[in-house]
Amino acid sequence: MALQWTQDIDDMFTTTWSNRKTEAIEQAYKATPFWFWLKEKGRIEELSGGTRIEVPVEYGKNDTATWLSKGGTVPLTENQLMTMTYEDWKYVSVTLMRFGIEDQQNKGPNKIIDYTARKTARAEEALDTEFERVFFATGTGDNEPNGLINLVSATPTTGTVHGINRATAGYEWWRNLQKSSTGVTSVALIPDMRNCLNTMSLYTKINLKDIFLLTTQTIYEAYEDELLEYKVIQNSTLGDASFEHQVYKGRPMMWAEGETEGYMHFINPRYLYCVIDPGYFMDMTEWKPIPDQVNDRVAQIVCTIQMIVTRPISQLVMTGIVVG
C-alpha cells in the first residue's frame, strides 16, 4: 500500500511539472532582463542534439566596391567574411527531494496538491537564480556556460572565446569594445554613454536599433537622477515582465542584480544569443529511490544551454563607472 502511495505521488509530481513546464520556461525568460530582451528579439535559439554547437563567426568586410569608367572591370575575388568555430553544451540541474515521512504527512487531495506545487516552485526559483548568476559570470566555473564577463570582457585582448585566442595578432576582430569611464556619473556618465554608442556604430552601422544596455542598480539610479534634472525621464515596463527600464536614445536600459559593479554593457543581440536544446530544457527526470533511505526519493529538473557571441567587436562594455 505504501509503495502504491509513493507511485501515486510520483505521478502527481510528474503531472504537476508537465502542466507547469511551459509556464516555467516563460517565467525563466522573464526572470532576468538580459534573457528577457534576448527572447523579445528572437535570440533564444533552439538546437536539438549534437555533440557540440557550431558557431558562425563573422569578420572582415566586402571591399569589392569599385568606381567605374567606360569599359572598366570589377574585381571578382570573394572576400572571406565568415568562418566556423565550435562550443560545448552546458548542463544544469536542480534536485527535488522527497522524504517518505513528508509523503505520508501530506495525504489528502488538497494537501498533496499544495505539497507538489511548493516543491516544484522552489526548484523553478533555484534555476531562475542560477541563470541570473551565470549570465553575468566569467564562464570559468565548473561546467558553466559562457557569461557576459568573458564574452564581452573588460580585458578583450586576453582570453579565449569559443576556442579562439583574442590575444593572437591579427585577431582584433575577435575582441569586443571596451571603454573606461572618464569621471563620476554626474559629470561623465551621459557623455561616456554617447561615446560608447557612437563607437559601436563604427562596427555595426545599421544594426544599432536593437542594442540594449545593462548595468547595476546604483548606476541605473544615477542615470535616472541625471535625467530628472532635465525633466526627460522615460520609465516603462518591458512587456509583461516585472522590471522597469529607462531609455537612452530610444534603446532600453535595465539594471540586473548580477551585473559587475561599475560596469555597463551595450549588447547587440544580432551577434549575441543563447542556445537551448528544447528536448532537454526544463525536463524532469523520473523519481529514483535513495539508497539506504526508507521511502525517500529524488528527481532532477535538467536544462541544456550555452551562450554564444559571433561578432565580439559589435559588443561593448564600459568599466570603472563611479557614482557621484
Summarize, please.
The chain is an alpha+beta fold. It contains 7 helices and 16 strands. It is globular, with a radius of gyration of 24 Å.
Counting DSSP H or I runs of 4 or more residues, the number of helices is: 7
Succession of helices and strands: HHEEEEHHHEEEHEHEEEEEEEE
Shape: globular
Please mark out the parts with pLDDT under 50 across 5 or more consecutive residues, or reply none: none
Q: What's the mean pLDDT score?
A: 86
The rounded Rg comes to: 24 Å
| Number of strand elements | 16
End-to-end gap: 68 Å
Tell me the layout of helices and strands.
Blueprint: H1 2-31, H2 33-40, E1 44-46, E2 53-58, E3 82-87, E4 90-98, H3 100-105, H4 109-135, H5 148-151, E5 160-161, E6 164-165, E7 177-180, H6 185-204, E8 212-215, H7 217-230, E9 235-237, E10 244-248, E11 251-255, E12 264-267, E13 272-284, E14 288-289, E15 297-309, E16 316-319
Can you tell me about this structure?
There is one protein chain. This protein is α+β, with helices and mostly antiparallel strands. Helix content is 34%, strand content 26%. The chain has seven helices and 16 strands. The protein has helices spanning 2-31, 33-40, 100-105, 109-135, 148-151, 185-204, 217-230, and strands spanning 44-46, 53-58, 82-87, 90-98, 160-161, 164-165, 177-180, 212-215, 235-237, 244-248, 251-255, 264-267, 272-284, 288-289, 297-309, 316-319. A seven-stranded mixed sheet has the order 7-16-12-8-11-10-9, sandwiched between helices. Strands 1, 4, 13, 14 and 15 form a five-stranded mixed sheet that branches. Strands 2-3 form a two-stranded antiparallel sheet. Helix 1 (2-31) packs parallel to helix 4 (109-135) and helix 6 (185-204) packs across helix 7. The longest helix is centred in the first third of the chain and has 30 residues, at 2-31.
